[in-house]
């Protein structure tokens, strides 16, 4: 019989589960603390549990390993990129970025992705499978254990479309922010979506205080269709309505991610259209000069033209930053390290 994935239980679920095997509720609290606060990687380490209970846990449950295969460190800014192997052999990547305000980890939510965005290396091999809550948490836990440094911010912006793995994502957020675990503030979590409208609406109703980031990348329906196949399914007007709904329900200002692709969406006309779309919205825009990937013929704009684009948005009163490039001397674009591994 397959052992159960014990790190994927929320606090409430673990209490029910332990009661269902004849254990007292407080035992669940002890186990939860070992798993999500002390980041224990074996039942053996849970020394305040009786040997009999540890053996019982060992028989029916497992702490699924997220094993490090490779770690690259940027000489420029100390950014670390990790390649992890999951229990079934799938490989995923995560990034640790060190900022003045704390350490931020960008995690993957799926092995591969089926969304097909044209500028993205993560989707080139399609979707293998969804990650479980424990595999999403495991990336953060391993990075904390490997570096000995506390993670204070989490962005779900690596490989995968998080809202295409909705149930697991929601459980992951509940466990990560639970006061009995790492207790990361919901306000320090950002989830990025390419615009899956029904799931954006559902997320608005969860009453989380997380930031939702929309991968916009084009300021008109036509431009989005060229860059993101998901645009054929959800029209830009529906996506923007879902963003407004999210802001109304949660009071959280939306972030819009806009990859600047030279000659494709970085013209003065694009800046004008984008300003028109966003100027009456309470939001923040992140401009991301695209990382070239060799399978596609996209180039990043010059620094001058990115700055020019930014100035045009600012003139319309839009809050905008150009995302600082982190770790540009290591396998740059999201999904490239994993892809190089898959090919070797
Ligand atoms: S940008 Fe995100 S949603 Fe789009 S293909 Fe890449 S991983 Fe998937």
Strand-helix topology:
Layout: E1 4-5, H1 11-20, H2 25-36, H3 51-60, E2 61-62, E3 67-73, E4 80-85, E5 91-99, E6 102-107, E7 110-112, E8 127-130, H4 133-147, E9 153-156, H5 166-177, E10 189-193, H6 197-204, E11 211-215, H7 221-227, H8 230-233, H9 236-250, E12 254-260, H10 268-278, E13 283-289, H11 303-315, E14 319-322, H12 336-343
Parallel strand pairs: 1-2, 6-9, 9-10, 10-11, 11-12, 12-13, 13-14
Antiparallel strand pairs: 3-4, 4-5, 5-6, 7-8
The protein binds iron/sulfur cluster.
Could you characterize the architecture of this molecule?
The protein has 344 residues and is of the alpha/beta class. It has 2 domains: 4-62, DNA polymerase, domain 1, CATH 1.10.150; 67-343, Aldolase class I (TIM Barrel), CATH 3.20.20. The protein is 36% helix and 21% strand. The protein is built from 12 helices and 14 strands. It has a 10-stranded mixed sheet, sandwiched between helices. Helix 6 (197-204) links the parallel strand 10 and strand 11. Helix 4 (133-147) crosses helix 5, helix 6 runs parallel beside helix 9 (236-250) and helix 10 (268-278) packs parallel to helix 11 (303-315). It starts with a strand and ends with a helix. The model has no long low-confidence stretch (mean pLDDT 93).
């Amino acid at each position: 019989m397959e052992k159960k994935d014990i790190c994927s239980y929320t606090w409430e679920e673990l209490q029910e589960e332990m009661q269902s095997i004849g254990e007292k509720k407080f035992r669940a609290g002890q186990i939860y603390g070992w798993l999500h606060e002390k980041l224990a990687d074996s039942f053996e380490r849970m020394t305040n549990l009786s040997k009999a209970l540890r053996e019982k846990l060992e028989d029916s449950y497992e702490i699924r390993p997220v094993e490090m295969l490779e770690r690259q460190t940027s000489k420029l800014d100390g950014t670390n990129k990790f390649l992890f192997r999951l229990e079934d052999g799938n490989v995923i990547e995560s990034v640790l970025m060190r900022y003045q305000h704390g350490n931020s980890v960008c995690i993957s939510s799926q092995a591969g992705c089926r969304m097909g965005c044209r500028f993205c290396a993560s989707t080139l091999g399609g979707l293998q499978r969804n990650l479980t809550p424990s595999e999403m948490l495991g990336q953060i836990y391993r990075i904390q254990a490997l570096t000995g440094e506390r993670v204070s911010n989490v962005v779900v912006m690596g490989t995968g479309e998080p809202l295409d793995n909705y149930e697991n994502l929601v459980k992951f957020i509940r466990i990560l922010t639970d006061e009995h675990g790492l207790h990361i503030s919901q306000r320090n979590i950002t989830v990025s979506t390419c615009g899956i409208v029904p799931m954006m609406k559902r997320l608005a109703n969860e009453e989380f205080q997380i930031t939702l980031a929309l991968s916009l990348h084009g300021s008109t329906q036509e431009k989005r269709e060229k860059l993101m196949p998901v645009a054929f399914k959800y029209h830009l007007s529906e996506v923007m309505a879902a963003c407004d709904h999210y802001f109304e329900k949660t009071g959280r200002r939306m972030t819009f991610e806009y990859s600047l692709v030279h000659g494709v969406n970085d013209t003065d006309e694009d800046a004008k259209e984008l300003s028109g779309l966003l100027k009456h919205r309470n939001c923040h825009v992140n401009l991301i000069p695209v990382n070239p990937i060799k399978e596609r013929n996209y180039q990043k704009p010059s620094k001058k033209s990115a700055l020019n684009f930014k100035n045009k948005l600012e003139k319309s009163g839009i809050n905008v930053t150009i995302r600082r490039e982190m770790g540009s001397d290591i396998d740059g674009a999201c999904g490239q390290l994993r892809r190089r591994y898959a090919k070797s």
